[in-house]
Automatic annotation (TrEMBL):
Lineage, opening ranks: Bacteria, Pseudomonadati, Bacteroidota, Flavobacteriia, Flavobacteriales
Top-level division of the source organism's lineage: Bacteria
Protein name (database record): Uncharacterized protein
Organism: Flavobacterium procerum
Length: 167
């Protein structure tokens, strides 16, 4: 970059775009993290915490696509959740790899269209929905293994109602 290049500050549309993309990417990463924990628990239900932590550390860097493939191969999730994850992967790939494609002129003009922001927000909302589905799936799994998940379920229900819990 030229040393004497003039930097143009982002306009409000661009700032909104950056915030929406940042929020969506953050929530996608939360889904990836939840899948890593879920895969770890479901594939190692009888292991010690130490062994499970080792497994998690080895597999925590899976991309969303890799984690979904493992979940499908190992039949860790219901068909409905598998389908949601596969569809979500397509949305995530668009977000990460193709947001700009087809919108170059608008970006160059500093003109961000509302429909683009809405599409990104939809991905963010879907990530949050899938995260909750994974959480409930894990609660059901742990319950099926004889664990009392009533307190966790109550906290999750409160969280979904928008009540923040701080310990």
């Amino acid at each position: 970059m030229k040393k004497n290049a003039t930097k143009i500050p982002a306009n409000n549309n661009e700032i909104n775009l950056y915030c929406f993309v940042g929020e969506a990417v953050f929530k996608v990463q939360m889904v990836e993290q939840a899948l890593s924990y879920s895969i770890t628990l479901k594939m190692n239900p009888t292991e010690t915490k130490e062994r499970a932590d080792e497994f998690l550390q080895q597999n925590q860097s899976y991309t969303l696509g890799k984690a979904i493939k493992i979940g499908i191969k190992e039949e860790l999730y219901s068909l409905l959740l598998q389908d949601e994850l596969k569809a979500f992967l397509q949305q995530r790939n668009w977000l990460v790899h193709k947001t700009i494609i087809g919108n170059e002129e608008d970006f160059n003009a500093g003109n961000i269209k509302e429909e683009l922001l809405n599409k990104i927000k939809d991905i963010s909302d879907k990530a949050e929905s899938i995260l909750h589905a994974i959480e409930y799936d894990l609660i059901e799994f742990c319950s099926s293994k004889g664990k009392d998940m009533s307190e966790t379920l109550a906290l999750l229900n409160l969280q979904e109602q928008g009540i923040r819990i701080r310990k």
